[in-house]
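Quick note —
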Amino acid sequence: GASTEYSIMQATFDLPDLGGCPAELRVEGMDSEGPAKTSISIQVNGAEVYRGPNPLPDDDIPLESGTWGAHVFPFDGRLLREGRNEIQIANLDAGAFSLPPFFMLDYAEVACAP
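Predicted structure written out below.
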């Protein structure tokens, strides 16, 4: 939750010059249990590209492996720069460690949109 030290997932990475292509952030993960979707914010190099409910599936099915899904967030590729870049995904809902509302992430990939 937003009140914990684990409220933000952050990754830095280096890129070659992408020429300002339309870009997307592809993620695989899940939302927490319950009917309410976790409010999240996604930033690319400090610019917010998404704010709203987590579109990933809820972890409501009683599987030990969880209920994983994928989603693509398109964004303006001009936010990316040659060299060092940063992506942040923040949980905006109040909560406690290891309890809903949460956002679990298995992987994330930044690419030029097809």
